[in-house]
Amino acid sequence: MPDDVLVVGGGVGGLVLARRLALAGRHVVVLERSDRFGGQVARQTVAGVPLDAAAESFATRGGTMAALLAELGLVDDIETPLPKPAWLHRADGSAVPLPATGVLGIPGDPAASDVVRAIGRRAALRARFDALLPARVGADAPSLGELVRRRMGRGVVEGLVAPVVRGVHSSDPYSLPVGTASPRLRDELRAAGSLAAAVQRIRAAAPAGSQVAGIRGGMFRLVDALVAECERLGVRLETGAEADDITPDAVTVNGRRRAGEVVRAAPPTRAPAGRRVTLATLVVEASGLDPAPRGTGVLVAAGAPDVSARALTHVSAKWASVGARLPGLHALRLSYDGDVPDAIEQATADAETLTGARIDRVVDATCAVWQRRPGGAWADTPEPAVGEGPAGTGLAAVVAHAERVAARLGADSPEPASGGRMER
User: What is the third-level CATH fold of 275-372?
Assistant: First the structure.
């Protein structure tokens, strides 16, 4: 008897889809080639404490994630970051707090003192011309970088937007589509008349502290809950399932042809390779980090001297639950483009440069390498598809898209709850 639905890939998108279809009474099999589920939501243990090995937070926009976590019994464990600012490590090697009111580095008030401090008076003055330009200027720009350049100038792009996009999206602002970066930004520009006013409207709908959130104990708990729910609902979860020759109604798994309605939740072999990202996690003794001198972390401008990392997160300062489990210690996570020789040694040196604090001892450390594929890179596959490829970057986008695909395939998918918005 053929399987009803075959989901090829066991990341978050595939698990959300499988759960929703099972709730609608469909017989579902999830085929995962590796030995675990969750994709880029993964657990690691550092200094005896479970920590996220990849995704550590989600965008709160639309309430999609909050609604799912409520269904999974995790809504009371949603954790918001501690209200400490992030910093910007500039191309000249100096560091300044990231301007308080912005979206992906785009300032809501180009005349604000923290904006002037970050990019200089000349660049801030150029950015203020945004208020004088017709709303149509830049409205049709394909990329975030081009939109900001046309309205606010290169100084804002290079000094603010590029480091943020590099840290959040592992991308360049000129390669990032506006809709992927901030789905509301273009519409708000047309409605408000200027880019700064659009940013203010977006921020008003998502006050500081509500743009991103995590799960107390780790985002990997989402995967644990989804797997448990799928098992409870009778979804067959298979690991070590090497799938190829995928068509809309069949797939070959470990050499055996299996029939069913196929949904792709993993990239096809022809998909663009994307970027390799290295994440180094350190647990350290460093009294200079006690006051969190760089807030929740540091975003690094391209070309900054004496540092290779593109971003640092002070994990134990950002998430109270992590800090409570590491008394007297600090957890830091540094991200890099590509493979990094001697990654732990490099991360330790970069952490001292970026925080200005001496690290007395590395208690424990891990290194993970992930392949990040561009959003939309495999949206044109002949079979239905879920995951970061067709949905775009971020868990909120992946979950919302998986729910929509499930609805198209016949599952009763609830409307997302209302909530704040932003964008990692």
Answer: Polyamine Oxidase; Chain A, domain 2 (3.90.660)
